[in-house]
Amino acid sequence: MSGATTDAGPDRPGLTPPRDAVAPERHPDAPAPGEPLGAHYDHCFGCGGAQPHGLHLEATAGEGVSVTAEFTVQPAHQGAPGLAHGGVLATALDETLGSLAWLLRTIAVTGRLETDFVQPVPVGATLHLEARCTAVAGRKIYSTAVGRIGGPDGPVAVRADALFIEVKLEHFTDNGRPEEIRAAMSDPDQVKVARAFEVNP
Ligand SMILES: CCCCC/C=C\C/C=C\C/C=C\C/C=C\CCCC(=O)SCCNC(=O)CCNC(=O)[C@H](O)C(C)(C)COP(=O)(O)OP(=O)(O)OC[C@H]1O[C@@H](n2cnc3c(N)ncnc32)[C@H](O)[C@@H]1OP(=O)(O)O
Q1: Residues with CB under 6 A from ligand 1
Q2: In this structure, what DSSP letter does residue 175 have?
Q3: Count of other CB atoms within 10 angstroms of residue 159
Q4: CATH H-level superfamily of 58-169
Q5: CA nearest ligand 1 atom 6, residue
Q6: Alpha helix positions (H), 55-154
């Protein structure tokens, strides 16, 4: 007997929305479709500009609760000769899925990320990513993403399903190393990002 659809189902444990889940709602103050989202933290390995070997992933708001993003694989991202490391590809998916937070205006962290590696991704290739939120149940945010190579309509190289969990700003301030937290809180641009998320009716 297969085809379980409950949250605890054997197919995708923890990744199937429960029965009381609702459709995600784009926040009225979400960035307009086509607007670049920018980095949520300059030192983020996924999107920050201050990480020399980071992914420098650039995400753009899409329609509804969706985003697109691009990431070009650098030599520093290799796992095998000339090929992207799977963990780096998972990071690209995680970062793109995480960017949906800008559309929901909800601070959330990855609870679960299930990744399919469909095709090898060479160094120099640009991964064209798309993510969308599929459902929300209380603090649980369900989403899915694909990454294509050779162009936005190219073949799928990676895909992922994720469960993000809504958290308060204190998740970071209570758990992060104090020196980075202090530096972030004294950076007006960073405070602006944090405030934008805090005011979530
Ligand atoms: C000062 C500077 C601030 C800067 C930031 C400011 C704003 C920026 C915000 C957003 C930025 C925009 C873009 C972000 C882009 C990319 C970010 C990348 C994302 C990451 O890379 S982020 C790092 C990796 N991430 C973690 O570091 C999480 C570690 N973890 C925990 O911190 C806890 O584990 C937590 C909080 C997840 C839950 O803990 P908790 O105590 O709050 O909640 P609890 O356990 O009760 O779970 C509630 C319900 O979720 C279910 N649930 C939980 N976990 C599950 C799992 N794994 N599988 C299946 N179900 C799960 C439970 O079963 C329950 O379900 P139910 O309600 O049905 O019972």
Answers
A1: 14, 40-41, 46, 94-95, 98-99, 101-102, 107, 109-112, 138-140, 163, 165, 167, 172-173, 181, 184-185, 190, 193-194, 197
A2: H
A3: 18
A4: Hotdog Thioesterase (3.10.129.10)
A5: 194
A6: 86-98, 101-104
Pair 31, 21: CB distance under 8 Å: no
Give the CA diameter of the chain: 56
Q: In this predicted complex, what is the ipTM?
A: 0.96
Sign (positive or negative) of CA dihedral 132, 193, 114, 135: negative
Instruction: Kindly tell me if the per-residue pLDDT of 13 is higher than 90.
Output: no
Helix (H) / strand (E) element for 160: namely: strand 156-166
Question: pLDDT digit string (tens) for 145-156?
Answer: 999 999 999 999
Q: How far is the CA of 168 from the centre of ligand 1 (A)?
A: 10
Q: Domain coordinates of the chain in residue numbers?
A: 58-169
**∠ CA 15-6-166, rounded to 5°:** 40
